[in-house]
């Protein structure tokens, strides 16, 4: 494979200005330019946020996200198009976001922010706020995102457990459960944080039965994908006080519709699929892309290859 022309698809503007990435990659070898759907056909490789049919004419697609559920994997494989993703770069940003969610819920900061908008001075009941030290979190999915969450939870003095397919131990996680023991794993913790990719195995992973298995005082955090959670079952569990609250960055439909009750629930935090956002995002993407350009030149395997 030879990459003479590399396109930065304009869809990356959802995360950062495409000019930032173009400039960061200038001088790396290929001709680098910003492209739309049609001009992407003229490229050997394309770096993108979205997937477009025109990319099937390229030799290589790089997704600026870790998740790749939006890409037609079978079709890419049949056409011989290489797909790489950006796993491995989001541990800090997502880990800090989840730490922020837990602090907001525990210390009632979301409630106070809403009160400020209403110029309202009101303290919570004495037994509502709590500290994270000594509380527990179960991280479902212990890849880069999950480990980033676990690292920060440990720093906050929390007990950290986790779930991964193999059940093999992970440094910094007190106990790791296999996927088949999910209900046991999520039964007691104060927080359950979802950090899994969306696959056929994880679609609908958290539904009515799983929410019922969680403690009434527990909070669900989702920084994975909306499809990992049965959103209607979650709304019911919150309405019926089956769980105490939630912090959600991803949803079944995005943007979250204005009529969704999740917007106005007192113990629910809603963020716009931005947990991984950081001003240095484009630099991390540039590093991954440059590494793979070097690997192509040396006829070595792609890093983070999906297909």
UniProtKB/TrEMBL annotation:
Enzyme class comes to: oxidoreductase
Write down the InterPro entries for this protein, in alphabetical order: D-isomer_2_OHA_DH_cat_dom, D-isomer_DH_NAD-bd, Dhydh_Halo, NAD(P)-bd_dom_sf
Native species of this protein? Halalkalicoccus tibetensis
All copies of domain D-isomer specific 2-hydroxyacid dehydrogenase catalytic, residue ranges: 56-306
| Pfam families attached to this UniProt entry | 2-Hacid_dh, 2-Hacid_dh_C
UniProt entry keywords in alphabetical sequence: NAD, Oxidoreductase
Q: According to the entry, what is the taxonomic lineage of the organism? A: Archaea, Methanobacteriati, Methanobacteriota, Stenosarchaea group, Halobacteria
The EC code for this enzyme is 1.1.1.-
Keyword Iron in record: no
Protein name per Swiss-Prot or TrEMBL:
D-2-hydroxyacid dehydrogenase
D-isomer specific 2-hydroxyacid dehydrogenase NAD-binding domain: from which residue to which, for each copy?
Answer: 100-275
The family classification in the record reads:
Belongs to the D-isomer specific 2-hydroxyacid dehydrogenase family.
Gene Ontology molecular functions: oxidoreductase activity
């Amino acid at each position: 494979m030879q990459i003479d022309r590399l396109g930065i698809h304009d869809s990356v503007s959802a995360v950062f200005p495409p000019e930032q990435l173009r400039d960061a990659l200038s001088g790396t070898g290929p001709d680098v330019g910003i492209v739309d759907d049609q001009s992407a056909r003229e490229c050997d490789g394309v770096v993108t946020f979205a997937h477009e049919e025109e990319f099937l004419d390229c030799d290589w697609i790089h997704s600026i996200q870790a998740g790749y559920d939006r890409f037609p994997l079978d079709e890419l494989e049949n056409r011989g198009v290489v797909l790489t993703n950006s796993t491995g770069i989001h541990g800090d940003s997502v880990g800090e976001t989840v730490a922020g969610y837990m602090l907001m819920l525990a210390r009632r900061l979301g409630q106070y922010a809403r009160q400020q908008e209403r110029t309202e001075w009101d303290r919570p009941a004495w037994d509502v706020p709590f500290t994270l030290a000594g509380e527990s979190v179960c991280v479902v999915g212990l890849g880069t995102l999950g480990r980033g969450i676990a690292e920060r939870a440990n720093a906050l003095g929390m007990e950290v457990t986790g779930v991964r397919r193999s059940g093999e131990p992970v440094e910094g996680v007190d106990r790791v459960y296999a996927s088949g023991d999910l209900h046991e794993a999520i039964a007691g913790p104060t927080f359950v944080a979802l950090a899994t990719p969306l696959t056929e195995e994880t679609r609908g992973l958290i539904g009515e039965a799983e929410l019922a298995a969680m403690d009434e005082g527990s909070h669900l955090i989702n920084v994975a994908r909306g499809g990992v959670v049965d959103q209607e079952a979650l709304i019911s569990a919150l309405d019926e006080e089956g769980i105490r609250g939630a912090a959600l960055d991803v949803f079944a439909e995005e943007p979250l519709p204005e009529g969704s009750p999740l917007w106005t629930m007192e113990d629910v935090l809603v963020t716009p699929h931005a947990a991984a956002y950081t001003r240095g995002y484009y630099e991390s993407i540039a590093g991954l892309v440059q590494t793979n350009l070097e690997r192509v030149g040396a006829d070595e395997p792609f890093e983070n290859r999906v297909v």
